[in-house]
Amino acid sequence: MSTQAKPILYSYWRSTASWRVRNVLSLKNVDYEYRGIDLFKEEHKNDSYKLLNPMGRVPTLIIDGVALAESVAIMEYLDETYKYRPLLPSDPLKRASTRQLVEIINSAMQPMQNIAVLDKIGNEYKQSRKEWASFWLHKGLAAYEQILKQTAGKYSVGDQITLADACIVPQVAACSRFDISLERYLLIQRVVGNLNELEEFKRARPEAQPDADKI
Amino acid sequence: MSTQAKPILYSYWRSTASWRVRNVLSLKNVDYEYRGIDLFKEEHKNDSYKLLNPMGRVPTLIIDGVALAESVAIMEYLDETYKYRPLLPSDPLKRASTRQLVEIINSAMQPMQNIAVLDKIGNEYKQSRKEWASFWLHKGLAAYEQILKQTAGKYSVGDQITLADACIVPQVAACSRFDISLERYLLIQRVVGNLNELEEFKRARPEAQPDADKI
């Protein structure tokens, strides 16, 4: 792994995809420079930013001379190149379970509640953002909970912190923004409770970021 | 890798996520049993199927004694356990580019045009399915094309067939169902043209599956 320069993370404090990557950087103990991208000022739509991130989204990680985008690709890269504290189990079937959990969040939950989608639902179609988001998020939570019955220990997959844990903490926080009750999801509650106690997760939280709203 | 029993793929012929996994099984030369799940008969919502796939989606791969779900998790598992023809580059930065391309399709394109989402947009919100799908699919295509300017050779990432290729072929086919023109996406056209010539990709196509509509 080359370490010529400190990695730079383009992030928005409340973005759950950015938060996932912050969790991984924190767990891996990587020192990085934080650069806030204000989604409400549409800084992610600037041409110069889109050269780094063709989808025009956060996060982007500048590392080893290139700009990496898409949170799952970034997390896998960090896990492959920073050997400290592996975030995927060594057993291939457990790796598959971990990635299954990651993808439930990454492809079935978060895409349904990102700002661009909610704006189209609310502004253009005049539908309830909250009803739309709840509908999809409950589906994902129910599936995640069902899988945890097979996989969970202290964390999502046994007692090892994994990429799934890096994703579930931000996703549960997003659910609370839509007033989604976690009552039915006891294992998720337990796992997230355990994760939230860890210093590595605390320093990656939105309110600990330099661009957080100070209210 | 244990091979006690032939893997079983639960698939729907036109499902692009199923098609991705069929591409990988074909590229890896894995012999498997095909079981059609008819989404229009809602077979994916059966309780017995949801025990295998908690999200109630296709595909599911029964392999090495377990049921794997989420296409990206399945593809990564197959690439890790079947060493023949690696579908991720050995260079970590190229692996990251590959996964970036995969996730543009998996998290930004396909989730916007799956049947459940289109039904909600069309049946419940009375909006145009085609307009909704086009809006998101063009964003993804434009980003994929921009990345290909850096990465493409004969295929999406150089001259090696990768997981990104397994995903782009079905996604382009889905785009054509929404009458999306690929005119602006010359590199995607070239790469997909090259892939479609390969026998491994031909046998994974929807019309070659046992559950394909015979019209």
From TrEMBL, chains A, B:
GO terms for biological process: glutathione metabolic process; L-phenylalanine catabolic process. This is Maleylacetoacetate isomerase. Belongs to the GST superfamily. Zeta family. InterPro entries: Glutathione-S-Trfase_C-like, Glutathione-S-Trfase_C_sf, Glutathione_S-Trfase, Glutathione_S-Trfase_N, GST_C, GST_Zeta, GST_Zeta_C, GST_Zeta_N. GO terms for molecular function: glutathione transferase activity; maleylacetoacetate isomerase activity. It comes from the Eukaryota. Pfam families: GST_C_3 (PF14497), GST_N (PF02798). Residues 91-214 form the GST C-terminal domain.
